[in-house]
Amino acid sequence: MRFDEAYSGNVFIGSHSNFEESKAVLYGMPMDWTVSYRPGSRFGPTRIREVSIGLEEYSPYLDREMADLNYFDAGDIPLPFGNAQKSLDLIEEYVDKLLAEEKFPLGMGGEHLVSWPVMKAVAKKYEDLAIIHFDAHTDLREHYEGEPLSHSTPIRKIAEHIGPKNVYSFGIRSGMKEEFEWAKEVGMHISKFEVLEPLKEVLPKLAGRPVYVTIDIDVLDPAHAPGTGTVDAGGITSKELLASIHAIANSGVNVVGADLVEVAPIYDTSEMTANTASKIIREMMLGFVK
Prior knowledge:
eight-stranded parallel β-sheet, alpha/beta
């Protein structure tokens, strides 16, 4: 699949048909080969697109609408079922090409491991990259039961790749004791439980820097997002997450890419999670793509 081909399936609201004229490209990464609990997030991108039809194209938060932004929904990257390393290589190659075309990459997962090759590709293009990470889980393991390719490892991988002090995690409420100890030892920023207020304290320090934003939907409390593979009680509200996205959008931070991962429609009987994710994608697109 070429990333500039028109997608024949359901597209996210407001998608333009011309790749060349688009500033941003929305793409799916339908992989859940390494999950440690419940699979199903490979179906997330498709369902997020489908429910987006229920959204308005206007954001009253940002006073901007989808018509103000040329973006292209490229569909999902074809990934080989069960082959984690090959899938990650294909994702990195795909994003490399998008960045070479000066497009803003906005990805939908899939499990959180898919963010690792994207962040690696973005780090090749942008020096002094910083990561803003929203999640219930630290994702700082070196391996899960001996397997280094796991959805519990992507933040550890990017932290070691660009330096732990360039990674800022928010909403964290679950992880091994050793993960928290490692983060403290190496100077990585972890905000336990809270998101908005600590984020506001960090953003001035990142002004002018290129920043990649990765959101695991399970940063939300299961009451707001039950449709995910690894639910964890005690999370934030969807209102808080939206306010955090708007805080980033209105800061001096130069967002150069983003993703939202871990939506698993099979557990989302009310479609609350998919609809929330769809709105978050809209706000990220309108807020981050200038």
